[in-house]
Amino acid sequence: MLNEKIVYYRKKNMLTQEELAYQLNVSRQTVTKWETGTIYPNIEYLIKLSNLFGVSIDYLVKEDDCLTLETHKIEISELACFLVKAKKATYANKANKVNSSRKESHDYSYQENNYTYLDSFFGAENFNGDFLKETLLQADEELPFRGPLFYQKGDYLYLLRI
User: Fold this and answer.
1) Alpha carbon distance 91, 33 (integer Å)
2) Does residue 26 register a pLDDT over 90?
3) DSSP letter string over 17-61?
4) Which of 88, 90, 92, 153 fits 136 for a cystine, CB–CB 3.0-4.6 Å?
């Protein structure tokens, strides 16, 4: 549904309703109505949304756009590659720490091309996570979402349960 895709891509681009409204020169209430399905954007705004989100108008308005299936296969491998880079460029490498997104969270962010990665966790800042960080550096494109299935060093053992 169009309204769900607007919400999805707005959040994917880390935009608030106000920020999206500003970029499109509409009110925040208009964006809210689009996202709830109360009203639909006219063709002028569909074009702007399409350009802003980097997707076709067909994809935005059609529920089942077969033309995009091949594109999504390509994006999945790109996404896996991006996730591996992001893991290695954030918490695991003690880099790219950003302001907390939620109370008492520890956040790391990485951005490349159309993708943005936010790693957010809760826990003590003095937690000695060197083994976990070393494990996360072992992520590959087969299992980009965490670390390897199995990793051991000294007395420490990491097992990924899928």
Assistant:
1) 38
2) yes
3) HHHHHHHHTS-HHHHHHHHHTSS---HHHHHHHHHHHTS-HHHHH
4) 92
